[in-house]
Design a protein that fits this description.
alpha/beta; TIM Barrel; eight-stranded parallel β-barrel; two-stranded antiparallel ribbon; 12 helices; 44% helix; IolE/XylAMocC-like; signal
Length: 280
């Protein structure tokens, strides 16, 4: 009888267009980049972290705000059930003092160290890229010996053409995959003229992390690596095809997703972003 009932349900579903509920596209913990709350942290670290917790966010990409020690910030995160799988540090610290990067990573229990900017002049050149490759390979080897993965976070200026690809392609091809991985920033990739989803498909598992960001409609692309902070908008309201990016990220196994909203409107936009992600 059970088999007959099941067959009847299937037949009725086919006839009347019923279907099982679709599985959600976004199935990962909600994370946030600490830079999003840079102004709020200056007023109250505790109150800001309470807000983060209330949003259902359980991961944060660091580092700690300047007005609190790493140890105390880690304690406050733990009290709220928030982990820090990745920590963002400047190029000079990671390259010239990797032991400091390791020290901070150990405090927070971070498995990734992210660098978001390569020093350069008005234009990012092949010479800048070559120096970064050498520096990242060297520092990445030191970090890897301690179980930490160095990730470079694109910022838009790396997508100038070079040979049969871009300078970003050069960075990926010439860094040692044993020591250097990447974090995709959706907004900056798009703003630099790249397709974020296609970038994930092209370089696959070299990407370990992702910044969830969208850019205001009508903003033109360029290679400056900068744009007005008000051009950060809630996911799904800007120019980027977010579902395609998430599908590509899921296919290559990315597990850590950090919402980053640099705009003054982040307090209203982040709840919109989370609602949008839940709706996919």
């Amino acid at each position: 009888m059970k088999k007959i009932a099941l067959l009847l349900i299937i037949a009725l579903s086919a006839k009347y267009g019923f279907s099982q509920a679709k599985k959600p596209l976004y199935t990962y913990p909600f994370g946030v980049q600490s830079y999003t709350y840079r102004a709020s942290f200056l007023n109250s670290v505790a109150a800001t972290l309470d807000t983060v917790k209330a949003l259902g966010i359980t991961e944060m990409e660091g580092p700690n705000p300047k007005n609190i020690s790493p140890e105390e910030f880690k304690k406050m995160l733990t009290e709220r059930g928030i982990s820090m799988p990745s920590i963002g540090l400047d190029y000079e610290t990671v390259v010239n003092n990797p032991q400091e990067a390791i020290r901070l990573s150990k405090i927070f229990g971070s498995l990734y160290v992210m660098v978001a900017w390569i020093p350069h002049g008005n234009t990012f050149t092949i010479d800048d890229a070559k120096k970064a490759v050498a520096d990242f390979n060297k520092a990445g080897q030191v970090l890897k010996a301690q179980g930490i993965t160095l990730c470079y976070h694109n910022h838009g200026y790396e997508f100038g053409t070079y040979q049969d690809g871009t300078l970003f392609d050069y960075l990926v091809k010439n860094t040692n995959p044993q020591y250097v991985s990447f974090e995709l920033d959706m907004l900056w990739a798009f703003h630099g003229g790249a397709d974020p989803a296609a970038l994930l498909k092209k370089h696959g598992r070299r990407f370990k992390l992702i910044h969830l960001k969208d850019i205001r409609k009508g903003v033109a692309n360029d290679l400056t690596g900068t744009t007005d902070i008000n051009n950060d908008v809630a996911l799904g309201t800007g120019q980027i095809n977010v579902p395609e990016v998430l599908k590509a990220a899921k296919a290559i196994g990315i597990r850590h997703y950090f919402i980053e909203d640099e705009s003054p409107a982040h307090a209203t936009q982040i709840p919109e972003t989370i609602k949008y992600l839940k709706s996919l």
